[in-house]
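Table S2 (text version). Query chain:
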Amino acid sequence: MSGICHAVVPAAGIGARMGSDIPKQYLRFDDITLLEHSVRALLRDARIASVTIALHPDDNFADTLPLFGEPGVQRVVGGAERADSVLAALNAVPGGVDDWVLVHDAARPGLPAQDLQRLLDTVLASGVGGILAEPIVDTVKQAGEDGRVAATLDRSRLWRAQTPQMFRLGELRAALAAALAAGLPVTDEASAMELAGYPVQLVPGSPANFKVTAPDDLALAAWYLAWKEEQA
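Corresponding structure-token output:
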């Protein structure tokens, strides 16, 4: 079986929750966009042979980035939902069905190199697809319809899913297409693989690999990136 790895980055969203005039993936800190930070985190591992980025059809920002002139980086037109964009990118990945593909959020700029290495090492050694995830340490409450606490959940078996999520290219492509055709809810790539009956292993990740969704998250992302530079 192939050990070749590729990456896909869905970046066709508008980032409405950021309250910005531009899509959040193009917001800058350290004079670099979130998208560039996230893609460069992937390219730091030499095992990633290519990165395919799915963009909004009316994207007017990508042409200004040197990122899209780098070897191995290509772009495609994304879709209305995340799963549509991922599927469009998967269809354009320059690899075979047995190659591995890692799907990573455009707004996760803080992916630590050791976390990416751990995911690649674990999945390639086992041959079983997996995702970076973080064990939940907070107490988790389930709400009732009246807005009051209905139950306290057992957090010992709860994990917060992150990206990258890594699977065989052909299997993920088929699983996503089948889920979309059936109208099934697909919130991440792992959920499509689960619906298709594939095992998905959890690989421990880091709090630094969080998703930027609100304006205050930019300052936290900058702090994590500065901390990573100090540790290097």
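Notes on Table S2: Helices lie at 34-43, 82-90, 113-126, 169-181, 189-195, 216-231. The chain has one domain: 5-231.
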